[in-house]
């Protein structure tokens, strides 16, 4: 355990960037949670990431930056999940879509998969140097659907989060990235095959409501406390994950795994990560 603490870098400030379309996401509760777990750390709530930084730009520079960002985001789209090549020229309609999205903090960007690594790179370029050091943790909440290329099975996979500078957490990814129960997919396909009406699909969702997270789910804030802790542990130790399925740092690939780690486990953290947090509190208090 001593080695664990010696290798931990404790940041001084954490910035949480608002995601306006997630009605059930309460960043104040997440900030209070972080401050309770890591004594002495300052957690600041900010407007949506792009609006926070672009609001300080003069109008002409802001418009030019939005044009530039729109091209970059359009170029970060994943056109074919089975192909890593992204050397395509974005279409004008795609660039215009991104401009509209960038100008509206409550724009819902569902249905488009973006290369998460490129999104992270685009956002990183906007962070001023004075806030880009190791003492600062930026956690961006977005409704953009993000994924990363997997060399193992040669395709893009949707992600809930990518950790780094900044860390990016997708509220859409919470719903769409971890797989739902197999039985749900089987029954949904049967409904589609029989031409069932919308009420039948809603009833199916209700049957599985305790087994996966849906859009605007009241459990979203509690779920994302764990992903924020993963982002913080990545910053502190270089490793955001844990192999223990009952620890909040568990890298869940199924909705039921995520619900267990974040909601129904009898403990928040495994003994190893709980001990790291305890020693951080002891160090701060000494």
* Low-confidence regions: none
Helix content: 40-55%
Order of SSEs, N→C?
Answer: HEHEHHHEHEEEEEHHHHHH
**Rg from Cα:** 20 Å
Beta-strand portion reads 5-15%
Oligomer: single chain
Strand order of the largest sheet: 2-1-4-8-7
> How would the global form be characterised?
globular
Mean pLDDT, nearest integer?
93
Number of helices: 12
Distance between the first and last residues' Cα: 18 Å
Major sheet: size, sense and barrel closure? 5 strands, mixed
Give the domain tally: 1
Find the count of extended strands (DSSP E, 2+ residues). 8
Structural class: alpha/beta
Provide a short characterization of the protein structure.
With 286 residues, the chain is of the alpha/beta class. Helix content is 46%, strand content 13%.
Explain the overall architecture.
- There is one protein chain.
- This protein is an alpha/beta fold.
- The chain has one domain (9-211).
- It has helices spanning 2-6, 27-37, 49-54, 59-75, 92-103, 116-124, 171-176, 182-193, 198-207, 220-237, 255-264, 271-285; strands at residues 13-17, 42-46, 113-115, 136-142, 145-150, 155-159, 161-162, 167-170.
- The strands form 2 sheets. A 5-stranded mixed sheet has the order 2-1-4-8-7, sandwiched between helices. The protein has a 3-stranded mixed sheet with strand order 3-5-6.
- Helix 2 links the parallel strand 1 and strand 2.
- Helix 8 (182-193) packs antiparallel against helix 9 (198-207).
- The chain is globular.
- The mean pLDDT is 93.
């Amino acid at each position: 355990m001593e080695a664990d603490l010696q290798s931990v870098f404790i940041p001084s400030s954490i910035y949480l960037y608002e995601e306006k379309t997630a009605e059930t996401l309460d960043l104040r509760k997440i900030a209070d949670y972080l401050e309770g777990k890591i004594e002495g750390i300052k957690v600041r709530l900010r407007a949506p990431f792009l609006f926070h930084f672009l609001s300080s730009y003069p109008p002409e520079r802001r418009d030019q930056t939005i044009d530039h960002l729109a091209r970059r985001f359009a170029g970060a789209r994943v056109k074919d999940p089975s192909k890593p090549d992204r050397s395509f020229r974005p279409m004008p309609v795609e660039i215009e879509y991104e401009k509209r999205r960038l100008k509206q903090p409550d724009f819902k960007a569902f249905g488009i998969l973006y290369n998460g690594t490129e999104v992270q790179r685009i956002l990183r370029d906007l962070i001023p140097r004075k806030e880009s050091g190791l003492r600062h943790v930026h956690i961006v909440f977005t409704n953009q659907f993000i994924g990363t290329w997997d060399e193992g099975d040669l395709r893009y996979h949707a992600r809930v989060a990518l950790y780094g500078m900044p860390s990016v957490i997708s509220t859409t990814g919470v719903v769409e990235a971890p797989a739902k129960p197999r039985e749900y997919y089987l029954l949904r396909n049967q409904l589609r095959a029989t031409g069932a009406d919308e009420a039948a699909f809603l009833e199916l969702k209700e049957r599985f409501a305790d087994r996966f997270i849906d859009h605007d789910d009241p459990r979203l804030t509690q779920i994302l406390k764990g992903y924020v802790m993963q982002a913080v542990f990545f910053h502190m130790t270089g490793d955001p994950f844990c192999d223990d399925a009952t620890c909040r740092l568990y890298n869940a690939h199924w909705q039921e795994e995520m619900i267990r780690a974040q909601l129904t486990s009898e403990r928040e953290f495994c003994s190893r990560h709980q001990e790291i947090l305890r020693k951080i509190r002891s160090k701060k208090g000494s």
